[in-house]
Amino acid sequence: MESILSCPIVSVNARVWRFWSFVLKHDAMRYISIIPVTVMTFFMFLDLGHSWGDFQDVIIKGYFAVLYFNAVLRTLILVKDRKLYENFMEGISKFYFEISRIDDHQIQSLLRSYTARARMLSISNLALGAIISTCFTVYPMFTGVRGLPYGMYIPGVDGYQSPQYEIIYLVQVVLTFPGCCMYIPFTSFFVSTTLFGLVQIKTLQRQLQTFKDGIGSHGNKNANLQVIKLIQDHKRIIAYVSELNSLVTYICFVEFLSFGLMLCALLFLLNVIENHAQIVIVAAYIFMIISQIFAFYWHANEVREESMNIAVAAYSGPWVELDDSIKKKLLLIILRAQQPLEVSQQTSLRRPHNLYIQLLSSTSWAFSIPADHSRQCLSDDAGNVPIPPECILLVLHPAASGL
Fold this sequence. Notes:
By secondary structure, the chain is mostly helical. Helix content is 74%, strand content 0%. Helix 3 packs across helix 7 (164-210) and helix 9 runs antiparallel to helix 11. The protein is elongated, with a radius of gyration of 25 Å. The termini are far apart. Residues 346-351, 370-375 and 378-403 have low confidence and may be disordered. The chain crosses the membrane at residues 28-46, 58-79, 120-142, 167-199, 247-270, 276-298.
């Protein structure tokens, strides 16, 4: 456990998880956070059913319900598979300190750079989450009417009458902090572990280009041992990416589906609302979704591209004067590198960069629907007519309207 907490590339997220007892220890803190946030999420989904008819209200409440559902899902999977996560982080710690002992200034510079990047992203994500969560909780105070940070329906309780209103508001404010800690560190964990995968890949590339340096008089024999070690390192990287996939694949897949739907709804809503304060809030929600998805796909794409560059590094190395047996081993590395290492949602969803572009492209129609047409569908002059079926069809399939 101490080796994990002392490994700088994962220590920020590991310490947050350890504080809440999700991994590395087991005490009451785990239940203090998970159970109340899960109950609150359940009441948020109940409120969605009672809000149907007000399209704008449904979208905003749906956004928070999906956000908290993903936070609970992440945490429950993390707790369920905590041994797998602990072993994975233990392996990261072992390999991290192994790389830190390599006598190569370029590798050490690379390690420091990616470690600083991982820590900066982890800390900034927590800080940004705290700021945005604070905005979520204080926004209702400036609306001029009684409102809650997150819509909740508790059967038999009028949440807008005193003292229930004040109690529910306070509970939501308190639960926002553990909810933030349940959600954000997982994204930072994904980014940090992906960055460490890049460290291993770039270290292998560097060693493939310089493995003949300092091998002494027994050139071919020592070079053969070096190449065998590089093949083992390559196999270790392949296993690392496979293990990372097994830990995050299905969580990322659920978020891909849920956030894709919410992005469509929020972009559509942005085209309908006229209140400037609401436009700012909705734009902030959209930014959070896009930045969240971007964090996954950008770093996953880097792993893919750099894993293919292993072949280039092997070919550009000092292989010309080596024995044929060594050349064949290098050829094995080159051939394996033709199949990129990918962190993907499912085996059918490859090429993360292209998938990110396709997601944004496929949701852009929601913003391109003419505002006048959507307003006509959503309300009459009074602004409170329930949504007719043809408008549901318009949202789900814009081509049906002839646009």
